[in-house]
């Protein structure tokens, strides 16, 4: 749909910074014009007045497991090892494609309503997830988080992941990308790392990995292999410019140097790290080292939401409190991580607003109770805004959510299907 945002305040997240009272045109899925004048020769189907509104790039949720909304509110208040092995893995063993599709679609509703336009997700039953991405219109990088237990064949697992990549990568006009993935160092072994590194060397894709999330996992790796997870995986060729490392709570100085040298990205997931009592990543240090920082909500079972506004706010506040320094990180740095940083981590040109880029946009209501008067735009977006401030979410020029309405998904029907199909399957 061709849309003109008229006389609007704009957070570009490019070197242009914040622009007051400009016109932004969207045509054929792309940003067609940004400026004080009026675009010429464009047939506009919808005009949006910029009064009391702020336009910004769609948020990129750089680490999540969307289907886990099915476990929202399940198994709270326990540490990661117990939570994962005793509670989550047994429920996950019952999944099927249909349940995954329903849960993913519900998570996409929540994501769109809270301003997320693109996600990097690691899970399984990816066909069901791909259908949800296709039907909903959201942008996604999907990866199978490969693990390897005794007796399993690494080559076979990687071949299976590559089969999905071959069939789905760069489909849906590029909205859907298929990534490589290693669940974590502690759930896999050298045969798998070698096989994934070989696949990457043959044909590069993003590689999603959980990295140094807990102290126990980080220290156990050092005991077992004599190296940190980062150094170890790097020695197998898995830390690359296309690698997206989730968490990185226990990254050491040397680990950060490796990540910076390779050009890898880190998806900071503060809410999940707090809820599972894992700790707090050293964000100012990561930024200082020049590592590409992104932000993710992680799965809804350790959050309990997929709300990137809440994630940004806690990401900023945590560092200020921990460092006892209100300047430890700025709202602009956090918003940058949640937009351009995420786009870069996904290997995409999303996350900022300039002519020629994909039209992934969020329209905020600065006249709302929680945002008015929005005197400082970065601060307003990070500290004041929430899902209730989101008026419209657009992906690839398509309005997918507007004023409480989902344009591509029937949320009421999905909720009914969740009750009749997913709950009996997973819990009864
Ligand atoms: Zn995760």
Give the key terms:
single chain, 428 residues, alpha/beta, Urease, subunit C, domain 1, TIM Barrel, nine-stranded mixed β-sheet, eight-stranded parallel β-sheet, globular, binds zinc ion
Number of strands: 17
CATH topology of the largest domain: TIM Barrel
Largest sheet geometry: 9 strands, mixed
- If helices are DSSP runs of H or I spanning 4 or more residues, what is the number of helices? 14
CATH class of the largest domain: Alpha Beta
Describe this protein's structure:
The structure is a single chain. The chain has helices at 80-92, 97-113, 126-136, 154-168, 190-202, 215-225, 229-235, 253-262, 270-275, 283-288, 308-323, 331-345, 377-384, 411-427; strands spanning 3-11, 18-27, 30-35, 46-49, 53-57, 59-64, 116-123, 139-144, 176-184, 207-211, 243-247, 265-268, 292-295, 361-365, 390-395, 398-402, 405-406. The mean pLDDT is 97. It is of the alpha/beta class. Strands 1, 2, 3, 4, 5, 14, 15, 16 and 17 form a nine-stranded mixed β-sheet that branches. An eight-stranded parallel β-sheet has the order 6-7-8-9-10-11-12-13. The protein folds into two domains: 3-58 and 351-406, Urease, subunit C, domain 1, CATH 2.30.40.10; 59-345, Alpha-Beta Barrel (TIM Barrel), CATH 3.20.20. The chain binds zinc ion. Zinc ion binds at residues 63, 65, 210, 246, 298-299.
